[in-house]
Design a protein that fits this description.
mainly beta; four-stranded antiparallel β-sheet; 6 strands
Length: 89
């Protein structure tokens, strides 16, 4: 996962609100975070799933983990939510 521009050496990482430790849960390589375990991301819903949701038969309860990075930029705390598909902006 690419970090947003401006993330320096001091930052915090959370997965679903749980603090992550560098060197234990993830590694930073340049401007990228590499997690030591796979993070679950909800995939695309197929037509059967959409139909069942439309009819009220089922909902979507797939696991989806979010990654938040908290860092300071221009003297202000900033929160960026990342996903495996996040690219640099």
């Amino acid at each position: 996962m690419h970090l947003p521009p401006g993330v320096g050496e001091s930052y915090e990482v959370y997965v679903n609100g749980i603090p992550q430790e560098p060197g234990r849960d993830f590694d930073r390589i340049g401007d990228e975070l590499v997690f030591r375990r796979a993070l679950a991301q909800e995939g695309r819903l197929g037509p059967i799933r959409w139909l069942s949701m439309l009819l009220g038969v089922a909902g979507t309860y797939r696991k989806h983990e979010t990654v938040d990075v908290i860092y300071e930029t221009d003297g202000r705390r900033t929160v960026a939510t990342l996903s495996p598909n996040t690219h640099r902006t």
